[in-house]
Each structure stands twice: as structure tokens, then as C-alpha cells.
Amino acid sequence: MDRLRLNQIMNILLMPYKERELINEDNDYLNNVRCAYYLASKAIGQSMVELERQEIEYKKGINKLDYFLKNHQKLRINSLDDTKQLINLFFPEEDIIRLFENYGEEKYKECINVWYIRNIFRISESLLTFRDGKVAIRTWVNKKDYEGNRDIFDYHDALNKVEIWNILSRMVVPDLFVAAFYVISGLTDKEYLLNQAGNVSLADKELDVVLKKGIAETHMHFNAGIHYLILWEEVLNPYIWYNRIKFGSLEYQKPEEKWILHVIIYRIIMAEYSFYIKDEIDLCEYIAQKYGNISIEIYEVLHEFKEGKQIDKKRVEQIFLYVVERWKLDYGKYTENNDFLFESVYRNEIMYSSVAELFFQIQVLEKFRNNPTDVHSMHMFIQYLRVKNCYFESCIQSDTIKGVRNFQKYYSKATKRQSNDKKSYNRRIRAVFESQIQNINLRKMEIRICPPLFLDIEHFTVPDKRLKYDMKCEILLSIKDIFEEYLKCMRELLDKNGLAIKEIDKLRDQGIAGVPAIGIIFHFIKSDFLDNRLGNACWLQNVSGNQFYNKHILAYREKMIRSAMAIEELRSEIPFLNEYIVGIDSASEEFLSEPWVMAPVYQAIRNKKITKPVIKGTEGEFRRIQNIGFTYHVGEEFRHLLSGFRYVDEVIERFGYKAGDRIGHAVVLGVDIEHWMKKNEVVVLPINEYLEDLIWLWGNIVYEKMHLPVSMEIIEGKIMDLAQEVYGDILGITPFLLYQAYNEKFKQYHYETFRKMKNNININREPGVGNHFCKYYDTETSTGIFWTKEKLVCTYFCPVFWQRFQKTILVPVNMQDAQLYQAIQQYLIRKIERRGIYVETNPTSNSVIGEIPGILCHHILKLNSEGLDKNQHNSTLVTINSDDPIVFNTNCENEIAYIYYALQHNNYNEESILRWIDKIRQFGMDSSFIRDEKKPSQQIQEIEKILEEIEAYVKHP
Predict the structure, then answer these.
(1) What are the start-end ranges of the E strands in 724-865?
(2) Per-residue pLDDT tens over the stretch 922-950
(3) Nearest to residue 446, comparing CAs of 882, 844, 836?
(4) Could you give the residue ranges of the DSSP H alpha helices within 185-281?
(5) Is the pTM of this model over 0.85?
(6) Residue 585's beta-bridge partner residues?
(7) pLDDT at 167 > cutoff 60
(8) What is the mean pLDDT of the chain?
(9) Rounded CA gap, 190 and 358, in Å?
(10) Dist. CA 69–CA 85, nearest whole Å
(11) Which one of 180, 301, 373, 891 has the fewest beta carbons within 10 angstroms of its own beta carbon?
(12) 848 Cβ contact partners less than 8 Å away, ≥ 6 residues apart
């Protein structure tokens, strides 16, 4: 089904659980309409005046609902009638009015929450099942649901349940449906939650056999590796909010955070009530018995939460402090390593290695099933879900807006900690490991972290030798925290399973936890700074090569080069470290920094002057040093196809890539050319970007013998037209000269060029006279007003020309060029195949950020269909990864499963699919920069030795 259409359907179905506006009960427009209709039906037989009044109220409700739907950005509706039909499909008017009548006039306003709860159960039964003791996706349609009704997704030809799950799990957090499935399955005893952490397995039996051979995660940003339920535990930590109130530092960063205190109060009270109290007393009676004199105030706060109308912030804070202090008296000291419910109500359940949120939701939902008349508690629970989903709406990315810039907003919120102290930072590191070891088939896990860069001025006032040592210490300290928390995570895991340290290998061998071999990838951030547009960023300021006081592109690049070289030197100075620092990467927006900026960083790190072949171990033995691996985010997003192609080619050709190196995403290599061209009839981009696209194309045709269906005269004509618009006068400029200057950009140093050109500069000359090259340029020199390669190179570092380069132009995309773009795309695919370079794909990320229509039509088959499609012959080395688990609510195993189901959806036979998936799985293992699949016991020994060496290195300069 069309991705937009499926999003519309799921947005309507899930609307009651995720819309921020609905937290205020007056804004539950659907309920208002149903209530107005109910009152109008009750007015029949009464006076005409009353009937007309109710009809007016009903029309008002319809108009408000229409306004809400029309302005709902994520719906992007085609017609109001279509949307109303969807509403009536999932919230049928006749059935809900009958529900109102059954509950009577006292409860009708809230009893729509009974329907909301009912739909939770229907969704969970439609989408989930048990497979080998694990909660898994149900891909088939139920004949009847638990109530004997039609499956809520009984449109199997149009609605693929795997695609539904991919969308649903990024609209609302799916642990709710896991809990509901346990309840409708009658599995509410605590032992059934053994090792259940809220994950849903997407692999069927056949795929699971393949995955058990072991998978590798080769593209995951470490900060985003946390599971969302661990993040929710952190958000609801009562002591964080308790201390903020006590120290007067309570400020809300997000709109939904103003309800967090209410949520914590509700969660504490509802957990105790659901766990300890049978149905003979209601929630109000329980609160009265438990809290005595303060019970009225507590219930008022809960009632305020239920209505979504906050009145007195100070009063809520006082009640919160009282409830937390009472809770501390009841349960004793709290340790921050666990959810506070595991320290209290569920303290005997922590042994089951599950999560408190599942216990909580199962208890509450079971209570609702046993007592379906408790509509007030249901209403509060729905409010709880709304606040929770609104919180995660800013962390988990939906399909609304494409591009890395939009993604970064989600990434920054998902990775932001509740506290900035060291203890919180270390806890987050350990939480990532706790999240990832839940993937029991994970054998290798590369984690991407940023290397430290000295951007402040004072560091460059110290001698170079001291600077290098300081930088190395910063690098070592950044990985020291990671290694220490990894060891703590292992020890906690052993304690939970009653194992000694020497028995740690059993965790992996018995399928208790993944315990993968770990490797660190340092990834440099592509950045653009204002300094590049200001006068003090002129190339004249960098003639000496020692100007580090600003963030100009040359200074920033030099700092990255120094950091890269320090990383490589450390790998040959500390035993075993080269087996744990395994690669470098560069990430963030491609538009901010083109590959020429990063090329010298990569060239510097693979330098025979600093790379060593062997290192002496701690026990006198010699060990070979494995080469550091290269990967680079490229071709993920692009303004024009030519830009995407150029960036990919520049990385392969200019970075010193070898067989076994990798590129991240490379969506441009798999994009459907004709589909993209129809969507982008006119492209908006900076003029210099398009100029360099054409220069790159010209150079490949002339020097690389790229055979393309295009006229060189046309390309050269476009190049000269654009050059004239950029440079004004073009005396001496030719495509050849522009190509020479373009090549120079990829070099590490330009200081000789700068010094040579400075000889032609007269800073005492009246600026602005003439319009050639530079306002201080003396046209009486030997080159006069003719352009040279050196002049063109200097323009790349000139604020005046930088602004000219950024001038926005419109470039038409002609369908007759489809053959040209297809030829370039195929040329690059073949080049990557020949070079033995891997492409890291990330299915959900690619479909959300990049130019991929949906999860079931991912471009991976365009890169490698060997063994599947006889009509396609591409055999690029590809891997499948998660990218950012928290942002896309996924993991590596599920990403492989999405591609597995995509192949089934495209009607390939099962034997071919399994063989192909096994091949791609092995590509992941082989492509990992972590060479050996080390056992946990070996890793622990080596990491302990590395930590000892780090401590000694930092102490003794």
C-alpha cells in the first residue's frame, strides 16, 4: 500500500493514544461528537427546542473535529469524507452510542475510553503472537479476534502487517500492545515475563534459524543505541524531579513535561493499587485508606491529570514530594540502577530480567478486563499513554518530513540526558549495553562515538608535543568510560543469572544474552560554521598555516586531522587497543560539508609514517596491528542526483579506500531514477554545487573514460555559463582549469598556494577597485586579469566567493536525461563491486530519511540481487543495520526481518530468500572492522588490560 495512505490509516486508529491536544479532555473531538450525538438521540421525544439545541451542539462538534483533522500535519488528508469514514471504521458511531447507553448518563462522557482500551486489545491480537516463547509479529489474519469480531486489520492484500508494525512502532511506543497481548492471552503470571524487555521479534521460524548463526551491527550511533523503555525509566526517575524541586531548578523543557509529576504520582499509586488491591474497593477508596488526610489533595491532582487541566503547579509539586517521601518510608532506599517500581512494588519481580513498565501495564490492563466499569481509571490510563507517547513523539521519528536535518531534531532529543553529571552519563552508557545485549543473536557490535577535538584557543598556545599528549589523553578517557560501563554491565548480567565471572561465556552460548564483541568507530561530525562567511575567515588569514583561533573550515579540518593521527598512534602504543578502536567515520548533514573537507582526515590516518605493523603485548608477545577501517556517510540525502553520485565517487576515489572499506547508506545508488525525476521536476540548490557536479561529470568523461549518452559540448556550455555567473569575468577559465582547481581541494594543505598568491596582494591598495579575484589583488602582476588554478583554489576559502557559491538556483530535471542518470548510477555500482567496498544499508532509516518509498520497496535489491532475480545482475557487497535504534524504534535483527518480508512481498521463493538473507547476514559479519568474534571472557580480560594501560598512560606523560 502507498506509504502516505497507510500513515493516514494508522494516524486515525492511534489518534486517541498519541495526540498532545487530546490531553485536555475538552479537545477529545471524537468523543465530543459521539457524546453530542448520544444527547441528541436522548432528546428525541422531548421538546423540539431541546432537540434543536442538541443538533447545534452536534454540528459544533463536527466542525471542531473537521478543523482538527484539516490542520493535523501528519494526516495530509485528501478529503474530510475519507477521513471520517476511517474514523467510523475504527470508532463506529452505532457501537459507541450503544456503549454509552449501557453505561448510562453518569458515565457516558468517559466511557469512550472503554472503546479505546478495546482497540488496544484488538490491535495487539491482530499483530502479535508467541513464537518459541517470544512475542513475535503475526503476519496472518485472524478469522476472529478475542471478542469474536473481525480482525481489525482484515484487509491482508492491502495492509501488510509487517509494514503496519514498522509504522505503528514509530507512532506510539509498542510495549503497550505487548502488555495487552499478555493479558488477552491470560498470561499475567510474572514468570511468563522472563527475559521479556518489551521487544517484538519479527523473525519467523525459518528466518530465526538463519539469524542464530550470528549477526553484526556495523552502523549504529552509540548514543542512540538505548531502548526506549530504559529511557522512559530515566524520565520517570522520581529522584531527579524530587531534587529539582528541592533545589528550585524545576523547569519544563517540553510541553508534555508539565505532566511528568502527575504521571509519576499516578504510576506509583496505580501500580500499588493494581498489584495489591482486588476489585472490592475502587481507586478513590484505596487512596483514602493509604494516604489519609492528604488523600483528597492527591485525588484532586489525579482528577486534574484526568481532565488535562493543570491548575496549581506548586500544589502538584507539594503532593509529589509527599508521595515520594511516603514511598521512601514504605520501601526504603532507592538505587538509581533500576526503575523505581522495581525498588518497591515489583521488588520481587526484578529476578525475571524484564522491565517494570510491562508489569505495570499488564496489571492495569488486567484490572480493566476484570472490571470494565471503572471508566475513571481507564481515562487516567489513556492520559498516561498520551503523555508517554507525546514524550516519545519528539524522540522517535515518523515518516512526516524527509532529510537528515529533521532527523537530527529527534536524535538530539532522544539522546539528551535528564541530568548532565558524570554519574548520569555513565548510566546512559551502561543502558546502551543493557539494551543491545537483549539481541541474543548479536555477535559483533560497532559503536560510533565522536572523538574529542580541541576547539578552544588556549590549547594551541602549548607546545605541539604537549598538545598531542593532551589530545591522546582525551581520546583514552572517552573510551575508558565506555569500557568501564561495559564491564559493569557484564557483572550485573552475571549477578542476575547467578553466574561467576568465569562462566560468562554461558550467557552467549545458552542464548541468555547477545554479549557481542565490541569495537569503537570514531566518527567526525560534518559541520559548517559562520566563520566561513565572515571576513576573518579569508584565506589570507591562513597563509602561515597556524591560525586555529576560529572555526574556519581549514582550522576545523586541521583539528580533525590531528585527532585522527592521535587515534592511529594510540592504536600502536597500547596493547589490544587496535582491536577495539577499529575504524573512523564522518556523519551528519551531507550539505554542511562536502567530501573534499574530510578527505585529508582520512588520508592522514592511513599514513605509513604513523601506522605500525606490530605491537609488543603486556606479556612480551608480539601481535600484528590490524588496519583501521574506513566508512563514511554519503549519498544518504542529496539535492540533485548528480550531487549524490559525485559525493559517492569522491569518497571512493579521494579517501584512499581499499577493499573491505564501507560507505554508509548510499541511497542514491539504489534510488529509482524515473520515480525521483517525476517527483523533482525542478531542483533547488546552490549554484556552485551544480557547477561542481558538472565539472566532476566532465572530468570522469575525459579522464576516467566514463561512457555516457550525453554531448560534451552541452556539458561544457553549461559549465562556462555557470562559471560566468559565479566568477563574473572568465578570462582564462576553461573546464580543464576548473577541474584542476576542483582536484586541488582534496589536498590537505594549501599554504603554498596561499603564500604564492599573497605576493600578488597589496593590502594598502584601495579595496573595491576592479572586480577580479580579490579586492586587494594587484592586476599589474604577471597573471593580470586572467584566472589561474591558484586563484580558483583561493576562492574556496574566501567569504565573498563563499557567498556567491551559496546563491540558490533552479535546475530543471528533464526526463530525457533519465538514461544518463541510470548510466552513471550503474557505473558507480560496478565500480563499488569491483573495488570490494561494502554499502551499509539501514532499511527503516533509509525509508524515513532518504528517497525510498517504503520499507517493503527498499533499494537493497538494486544493489545485490544475486541469487534472487535472474534479470538483475548487481552483486554489491551490502549489509543491513539499525542506524539509530531509539530514533527508529528498531534493532539490527528486525531490520533484517523487514527486508526478509519485503522479499516475500515481492513473491520470491522461500528457499532463495533464506539463502540470500544468509549471504547478507554473513556480509555483515565479514565486513565488520571487528575482525574476531571474541568470546565474552576474552573481551573482559583484554579490556581490563587496556584499562590498566590507559590509567598508566594518563598518569605518566
Answers:
(1) 808-812, 838-841
(2) 999 999 999 999 999 999 999 999 999 99
(3) 882
(4) 205-211, 228-235, 238-246, 260-276
(5) yes
(6) 523
(7) yes
(8) 89
(9) 10
(10) 13
(11) 373
(12) 170, 397, 398, 399, 402, 407, 888
Distance CA 601, CA 631 (A): 12
Q: With contact defined as beta carbons under 8 Å apart, do 298 and 327 qualify?
A: no
- Written as nine digits, the cell of 397 is 521519528
Q: Which of 438-442, 458-462, 880-884 has the lowest mean pLDDT?
A: 458-462
Question: What digits encode the pLDDT tens for the residues 508-563?
Answer: 888 888 899 999 999 999 887 777 777 667 888 766 555 555 677 888 888 899 89
Question: Residues 6 or more apart from 98 whose CB is under 8 A from it?
Answer: none
Q: Which of 659, 516, 643 is nearest to 580 (CA)?
A: 516
Nearest Cα to Cα of residue 361 among 382, 330, 392? 382
Q: Which of 75, 70, 93 is nearest to 10 (CA)?
A: 75
Contact in structure between 15 and 30 (CB atoms under 8 Å):
yes
**Listed range (97-106, 202-211, 250-259, 262-271) with the worst mean pLDDT:** 250-259
Quick count: other Cβ atoms within 10 Å of Cβ 726? 18
Instruction: Print burial letters for 895-909: b (CB count within 10 Å at least 16), e (below 16).
Output: bbbbbbbbbbeeebe
Kindly state the cell numbers that stand for 9. 490509516
Of the candidates 204, 171, 147, the residue with the CA atom closest to the CA atom of residue 75: 171
Tell me which DSSP letter residue 745 carries. T
Q: Which of 464, 445, 441 is nearest to 454 (CA)?
A: 464
Among the listed residues 225, 231, 210, the one whose alpha carbon sits nearest the alpha carbon of residue 438: 225
Name residue 892's amino acid. Answer: C
pLDDT for the residue numbered 477: 94
Which residues lie closer than 8 Å to 11 by C-beta, 6 or more apart? 72, 74, 75, 171
Tens of pLDDT, residues 352-395: 888 999 999 999 999 999 888 889 999 999 999 999 999 998 88
Percent of the chain predicted with pLDDT > 70? 95
- Name residue 485's amino acid: E
Taking only the tens place, the pLDDT of each residue in 564-577 is 999 999 999 999 99
Mean pLDDT of 641-646: 97
List b or e across 307-338, with b for residues whose CB sees 16 or more CB atoms inside 10 angstroms: bbebeeeeebbebbbebbeebbeeeeebeeee
H/E stretch holding 444 reads strand 442-449
Grid cell 530514533 — which residue? Answer: 887
Average pLDDT for 342-346: 88
Least Cα distance to 486 among 953, 934, 956, 955 occurs for 934
Within 268-412, strands assigned E span: none
Question: What's the sign of the alpha-carbon dihedral 239, 242, 248, 250?
Answer: positive
Dihedral angle, C-alpha 573, 578, 580, 582, nearest 10 °: 130
660 Cβ partners below 8 Å, 6+ apart?
629, 836, 837, 838, 927
Separation of first and last alpha carbons in the chain: 62
Q: For residues 771-798, b (16+ Cβ closer than 10 Å) or e, as one string?
A: ebbbebbeeeeebeebbbbbbbbbbbbb
From CA 129, how far away is CA 137, in angstroms rounded? Answer: 6
Q: Is the pLDDT of residue 681 over 80?
A: yes
Where does the pLDDT of residue 654 fall: very low under 50, low under 70, confident under 90, or very high at 90 and above?
very high
Which has the closest alpha carbon to 451: 217, 624, 222? 222
Q: Are 516 and 443 in contact (CB under 8 A)?
A: yes
Q: Which regions of 786-828 does DSSP assign to beta strands (E)? A: 808-812
Rounded-to-integer distance, Cα 788 and Cα 628, Å: 38
CA atoms within 13 A on the CB side of 661: 24
| Rounded Cα gap, residues 724 and 311, in angstroms | 64
- Distance, in Å, from the CA atom of 359 to the CA atom of 351, rounded to the nearest integer, reads 13
Q: Which residue in the block uniquely carries the three cell numbers 538483475? A: 872
Helix (H) or strand (E) run with residue 576 in it: none
Q: What is residue 628's DSSP assignment?
A: P
Whether residue 918 has pLDDT greater than 90: yes
pLDDT at 101 over 70: yes
Q: Where are the domains of the chain?
A: 1-109, 226-398, 682-812
